[in-house]
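Hi P.,

Sorry for the delay on this. The queue was packed all week, but I finally got your sequence through. Input first:
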Amino acid sequence: MLSIKHYKELNSTSVFAHKYLEELSNFDVISADIQSQGHGQFERYWYSTDTNGGNIYVSIILKPDNLAHIGELTRFIALIGAKTIENYGITTTFKYPNDILINGKKIAGFLAESEFIGQKCKGIIVGCGINLNLNEDDIKKIDIPATSIYLETGKNVDKEEFLNLFLSNFENEYDDFLANGIKGEMLC
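Then the structure:
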């Protein structure tokens, strides 16, 4: 069962998760309204704001016993993100391995970082940034083409409702993913 630990502001949900990884449990979720130093792949800065209803900035802690398909984890979480975004009537595409796009503009990014002690996996931190309610002024502050569900639909997204749906989708498919990896029906 996923357990959400919510904070108003963190430098980064991922940095926080790495710092407290030993104390955190499998399926703990670190959530923040704002990240002052959020980052994606290659330490690229991830713009953060909580204006207009906020966005998703979370890290999911995983401590799996079965590591057979962990190399596919970033792709798996991106597929879960796309499935959740598509509930809002939006068609998504991917920029391999970890970005979700809408009409060539980035709406979400995912990053899985693992910590090992020798051969033993101490834990995996899956960082998720999803643009729910960024407006035109916010988009101008991002150095790549970006968008949000709000800009695509003209409607604000309830952040808590979206996060609950996203985490529910993740939880419903995670055990099967651990056992079987990404299956063809997930790619549809």
